[in-house]
Task: structure prediction
Amino acid sequence: MQLGGRILRIFILIILVAAVVYAGVISARWLGQILPPTDVGRFAVSAAAVLFSAALIFGVMTFYVNHGFGLQADIVRSVATREKLVALTFDDGPSKKYTPQILDVLAEYNVPAAFFVVGEHVERYPGIVLRMHREGHEIGNHTYSHINVPTTPAGQLASQLVSTNVEIVKATGTYPLYVRPPRGMYDARLRRVAELLSMQVVLWSLSSGDWRGSMTPARIARKVLERVRPGAIILLHDGGALIRSEGASRQRTVDALGSIIEGLRDRGYRIVPLSTLLEYPAGESD
Ligand SMILES: [Zn+2]
Result:
């Protein structure tokens, strides 16, 4: 990230904290007006102001840990470039039914992608993961059983990532470089474990919305093509389901993929491997 953007975000953070403190003071004054001016009343005012401020600061900090304000250099959502390069990523697979169809479309157009796989699915369908690898696609870790990271105990969190890496290495002989927490929900512990495992946390900048029941293949493609920007990391799904880890139809994603690839090419975009996009020097193209 550029220095200007970083200073702006630190400035926003300071403003937010100041707003929280100010809100605490205002609420204390307001409570002071409606409560009797006794010792009990004054104590209630002080306690309420402290609790209110603490809750707001906790809320802001939780938001920062889970979503960041762009200050977390170890979390990648997109790449700052003016060149029309994008990466396609597929989450929640491999699926016995849909992943092979997606691989067929990618092969037909000769397009690379990154698959963020679920460990237990890799264990079930190692052959599909080997095919991804042989056809030049990259494979990332999406936890062993599609957990909710912030509510998972630390020991389980580490084993979810390690056991998925083991399954990926067993299937392909290659150690994965990337991890994407389910639903993009990460915390400081996940970042530390990822660092220990020499993995980069990769989220996305453009969700196709293909997991939503209301989306048709045409709408999925339109959403991607309307919102695409240089350096985008595009999120699609080749497996999974909304609540369970498997079972939803990804046929609409399969059917949308050709139009997405053709549309991106028509607009001058080049679909590159995720690793190529991530190595791309920021801002280059002038
Ligand atoms: Zn997922």
Observations:
- The chain has two domains: 3-67, 75-278.
- The chain has ten helices and nine strands.
- Residues 84 and 229 are 7 Å apart (CA to CA).
- Strands lie at 75-76, 85-91, 114-117, 138-141, 178-179, 200-202, 206-207, 233-237, 270-271.
